[in-house]
Amino acid sequence: MTVEAVAQERVFVPALEAVDRARLRGEPEWLAVRRLEARDRFAKLGFPTAKLEEWRTTNVAPILSTPWLPETGATHAVRAAAGGPGVRVLSLAEALHEEPEILEKTLGRIANDENSAFAALNLALAEDVVCVLVAPGAAVEAPIEIVFHGPAKDELAVLSPRCLIVAGGRSEATVVERHTGTGAYFRNAVTEIVLGESAVLRHYKLQRESLEAFHLQSIAVSQARASHFRSVLAAFGGALARTDIRVDLEGEGSECTLDGLFVGAGSQHLDTHTTIAHVAPHTTSREVYKGVLDGRARGVFHGRIVVRPGAQKTDAMQTNKNLLLSRDALVDSTPALEIFADDVKCKHGSTIGQLDAAALFYLRSRGIGEREARALLTRAFAADVAGRIALPALRAEIEETLDRSLSDAAREGTA
Amino acid sequence: MAMLEIRNLHASVGGNEILKGVDLTVGPGEVHAIMGPNGSGKSTLAHVLAGRPGYEVTRGTVLYRGRDLLAMKPEERAREGVFLAFQYPVEIPGVSNVYFLKNALNAIRKHRGLPELDAMDFLQLTREKARLVQIDEDLVKRPVNEGFSGGEKKRNEIFQMAVLEPTLAILDETDSGLDIDALRIVAAGVNALRAADRSMLVVTHYQRLLNYIVPDFLHVLVDGQIARSGGKELAVELEEKGYAWLEKEPAASPARA
């Protein structure tokens, strides 16, 4: 048995064994079945190795070599603030009681990648699910805030937070998801999002994990006819952090905008994998991802666009731009287009560069110090992504975090 | 004390020696023009004075108000009052002109022990200076030089100069690419900034600019050295004869203004 397999057995198997009929008593039969299937699926798949194409860029072995406490599926200190009338933010138990049909149709059915070991692990272990239910036709002005904290004590915990967001037809809402914590922990998160017909949903994820933490999240989105999904991901934290976003444009005329910023320094590893599936005709996707990497950080952007047969008049545009602030920083940018329809517009572009020396000198020649000038240009590089966030306070917070994470790294570098 | 004292300045770019022993003294309040053919080293001199990385000084000294200018970083030179109006102002998408300029001005003020200007005071200052150089206030709010026309970029340089109030302003071919109306506006802005405690070094390829910005002294740079110095009448001579007659002459003795 390999070292990984031993570690896996020691850490995750006991946790999974605890997921049995007895523990699932009280949950409806369909959910218990899904959880047990997920448990078995994880046991079969195991931790992905770098041999798998999907995991070529991110080595999860360090997660296995940490002696995690083999308990816990607790989501740990969720704080959710409702955004106003028309929206309910419920626990799993409450949602199963109030909206059993919606849950049965959606929970575990959106993040349904049979090959995702981590999504399976989450479904088996997640004790609670933050359920955000937006009523059809409701226009919720205030953002719905969900905060996932780290472990309360300084414990080597495995956290399995899970969200389910269901936006009813013609509704409009904004959900802010934050991931934050201190110390070493492994957060394995899943968010499932369903947009009804003509629904508009903005989803902002701010990931600011501890620099000792491991963070994995799958965000899976299903869109009905004429719905609009706007996502901004701002990823700053983690020793190793990866977000997988999958959007299925299933309804005719549906549209998604995926924007993101990943900022790494020191020896951080930040990975974003996105998949946009154009399933129905007249679907539109826009994607702008920017990476800023300093120190020995490594960034990965893997952007896949799939145009299914019959998805005519698809209009897809993807851009990935990366800024390397040090010689040792590295980025891996891979666009992947798979087009199976003939009347489509698909464009993608990718760049990797450094700060513009002429711009740097221009700023310094006006009295701005070199460090501030670099920070100013870095902020400017990220400005258009931050600018996509419709909440000014959150936008400012992201800009500040950008400044701080890079100046912290600069200090670390000089120490 | 002289504002600027350049002695036997040699400088190379990418291993090629461009400046081959420049001597020049600029007194307080004086306006000096530097003319010369393409490739004579005019822009190199301007950039060396501003401290551009990659421009290597191999010999000589530059004293700015008695202090070693070459030992200062570009930002220190700016905070001490040196300003370079760029021949090709840089576009910086994502950074607004006002934000950039407020940061610059406050860095300079902080260096001089002055309190930082708040948003209101700064706004008032920029309004006043925008009028002085006839620059559209919308341009002031836009990202630095992004999508500006050539004339707007040059006007923006003079606008920045007006806000930052340098003691030594170096204008690097500020006239190039300007039509006559734009040239008049830019020159009027520069002339409005002439002061007893502010010196200027006006680098230009064409005599035309000197009809609008009348210098106290004029120097002709040829092959990295000052070949001739004189008053503004030298410009007329250059207009008639071109530069060829200077190129053929043996190296002139170092010019003193």
Secondary-structure blueprint:
The complex is a heterodimer of chains A (about 425) and B (about 260).
Chain A: H1 3-17, H2 29-45, H3 61-64, E1 78-81, E2 87-90, H4 92-98, H5 100-106, H6 117-125, E3 130-134, E4 144-148, E5 157-159, E6 162-167, E7 172-180, E8 185-195, E9 200-208, E10 214-223, E11 228-235, E12 240-249, E13 255-264, E14 269-278, E15 284-293, E16 298-307, E17 315-324, E18 330-339, E19 345-353, H7 357-364, H8 370-386, H9 392-414
Parallel strand pairs in A: 3-6, 4-7, 5-8, 6-8, 7-9, 8-10, 9-11, 10-12, 11-13, 12-14, 13-15, 14-16, 15-17, 16-18, 17-19
Antiparallel strand pairs in A: 1-4, 2-3
Helix pairs in contact in A: 2-6, 7-8, 8-9
Chain B: E1 4-13, E2 16-26, E3 31-35, H1 42-50, E4 55-64, E5 67-68, H2 74-79, E6 82-85, E7 92-96, H3 97-111, H4 119-132, H5 137-141, E8 143-144, H6 150-164, E9 168-172, H7 180-192, E10 199-204, H8 209-212, E11 217-222, E12 225-230, H9 233-241, H10 244-248
Parallel strand pairs in B: 3-10, 3-11, 6-9, 9-10
Antiparallel strand pairs in B: 1-2, 1-4, 4-5, 7-8, 11-12
Helix pairs in contact in B: 6-7
Overview of the structural elements:
The complex is a heterodimer of chains A (415) and B (257). Chain A has 415 residues and is α/β, with parallel strands linked by helices. Chain A has 9 helices and 19 strands. The two termini of chain A are 42 Å apart. With 257 residues, chain B is of the alpha/beta class. Chain B has one domain: P-loop containing nucleotide triphosphate hydrolases (Rossmann fold, 3-Layer(aba) Sandwich). Chain B has 10 helices and 12 strands. Chain B has helices at residues 42-50, 74-79, 97-111, 119-132, 137-141, 150-164, 180-192, 209-212, 233-241, 244-248, and strands at residues 4-13, 16-26, 31-35, 55-64, 67-68, 82-85, 92-96, 143-144, 168-172, 199-204, 217-222, 225-230. In chain B, α6 packs parallel to α7. The interface between A and B is medium-sized, with 24 and 33 residues.
